Amino acid sequence: MAEQFCCTTPVVSVSEEELDKWAAERGVKRRPQERTTEIDEGGNFVRQQNYFTTPFGDKEGELKAEEGRYHLVWAHICHWSNRASIVRELLGLQDVISVTTAGEIGGGIKYSWGFPYSKDFEDPYTGHKFLAEAYAKGDPDFKGRATVPALIDKTTGAVVNNDYHRLTNYFEVNFRSFQPEDAPDLYPEELREEIDKFNAWLYPTINDGHYRMAYARTLEAYNAAFDDFFNALDEIDARLEKNRFLFGDYVTDSDVRVFVSLARFDNHYYRQLGPIKHRVVDYKNVWPYLRDLYEIPAFKNNTYFEDFVKAFGLSKGAGGNFGSFTNKFGLKIDYDKLWSEPQNRKVLSKTPEEKFLRHRH
Ligand SMILES: N[C@@H](CCC(=O)N[C@@H](CS)C(=O)NCC(=O)O)C(=O)O
What we know:
Elements: H1 16-25, H2 34-37, E1 70-75, H3 79-90, E2 98-102, H4 131-138, E3 150-153, E4 158-161, H5 167-173, H6 192-207, H7 209-214, H8 219-239, H9 253-262, H10 286-294, H11 297-301, H12 305-310, H13 325-329, H14 335-339
Parallel strand pairs: 1-2
Antiparallel strand pairs: 1-3, 3-4
Helix pairs in contact: 3-5, 3-9, 6-8, 6-9
The structure holds glutathione (GSH).
């Protein structure tokens, strides 16, 4: 039962009183604020650690992959979780791992994510009204922000894994026996070490780079993150000069991680960053590369540009003469059309019509 209630803009809103009542009934506390709990002495944003990191595997204490048992909660706006929603679909796991889309309710995330697309604002698979409930079930002592992605065990309603560093790798490797035989191999064994190395470099520079810039509390911290981000983009652009995808002719796990961050840059992230160096569309290779990926249905189906534009703050209207560009024009741009402009990246590939290395039996 995939995407049962997903994913149009919710029509009913929740009042503040109702929200407070639900939270009180369910014992959910106010969400902690990063600016007080996740900033170091140098003004750098230091993200909370992923809390539920038990891996999938065969050893004792590890999580066992099973059909129908696990449930992914993700949010349109959030690239950490968008990775998992794309990979789930690329691998054909829609009937194996269910999904619910979280979002803001009552105009924000006062008590953590809610479920604005679901009937009665309840995750149909767990009955939760707040994601924080699944975190509390996972560990009553959890005091951090209840974040997406969250993989929930439907038998208990508890989060069992929120480790976005590894979640897609578990889908790729540990859920292999539930994928179609010819599913894409996004994490080929011979490339795993290199993919891991690349992903580890990508994390602070690009994936977390935007947050390191946006949440910085000193100019030094901002500048360091800014340089890391744009230097990394230059490196990626150079790498894509001769390679259709990051690791050659086929899409890998790393491409998903780059895509989800950059798909949000020109329409959302740039707003918090002051004068940016380049837009993503200015890169000679990166921009057509992203469109090449966007052609793949699993990427396109899981990319909600308008929600990026609306994220956290378009509600105040267009404003006066000095109203922001995004408020005035953000929703007038046809993102799907822009991202569907043809490109010819396939000439770089030995298999121009095949973007995936497929498992073969
Ligand atoms: N799992 C990570 C990161 C994932 C993350 O930050 N997700 C964001 C959305 S992109 C989220 O769910 N935020 C909700 C909140 O901060 O309350 C963490 O715990 O910090």
